[in-house]
């Protein structure tokens, strides 16, 4: 026996466009939080003297990182750009080998504990998952 009423509207199912928009908003906010985490890591590493002078002052990296995070957040939240999500996803994949190496095969005297890389690996994988959901409408 069918319990549905003919002509009734199912209010629990969101339209496809609304569901995809939600995926972009989730990816945007997670990327924003990832950016805040990286900004805090750069600040903490600079305070502990882990960053070397090759890359310039940490303030340049903090400003550049904030600008990149702001652009990506805007592109994902406002523009819902599939290509930005895919490009950021691809760049995130390139970070995995270094994070895996730091988490499971740390070098002597690196000054950064393996747990730092392990947590970063988990956060980056979650970010990749959310970006893929938005980019390919999974």
Brief overview:
The chain is mostly helical. It is 72% helix and 0% strand.
Question: Mind explaining what this structure looks like?
Answer:
It is a single chain. This protein has 138 residues and is mainly alpha-helical. The protein has one domain. 72% of the residues lie in helices and 0% in strands. It has four helices and no strands. The protein has helices at 16-47, 58-79, 82-104, 114-135. The protein is globular, with a radius of gyration of 20 Å.
Structural domains: how many: 1
User: Beta-sheet strand percentage?
Assistant: under 5%
What is the count of DSSP helices, taking H or I runs of 4+ residues? 4
Q: Which sheet architecture does the biggest sheet show? A: none
Global structural class:
mainly alpha
Q: Could you tell me how far the N terminus lies from the C terminus, measured between alpha carbons in angstroms?
A: 33 Å
Provide the residue-averaged pLDDT.
88
Radius of gyration: 20 Å
The residue fraction in helices comes out at over 70%
How would you spell out the order of helices and strands? HHHH
Q: So what's the overall shape? A: globular
């Amino acid at each position: 026996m069918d319990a549905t009423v003919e002509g009734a509207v199912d209010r629990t199912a969101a339209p496809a466009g609304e569901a995809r928009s939600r995926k972009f908003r989730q990816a945007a906010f997670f990327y924003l939080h990832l950016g805040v985490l990286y900004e805090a890591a750069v600040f903490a590493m600079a305070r502990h003297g882990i960053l070397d002078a090759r890359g310039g002052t940490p303030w340049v990296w903090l400003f550049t990182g904030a600008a990149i995070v702001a652009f990506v957040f805007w592109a994902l939240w406002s523009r819902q750009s599939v290509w930005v999500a895919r490009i950021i996803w691809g760049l995130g994949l390139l970070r995995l080998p270094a994070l895996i190496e730091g988490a499971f095969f740390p070098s002597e005297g690196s000054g950064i504990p393996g747990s730092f890389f392990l947590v970063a690996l988990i956060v980056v994988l979650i970010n990749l998952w959310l970006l893929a959901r938005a980019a390919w409408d999974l």
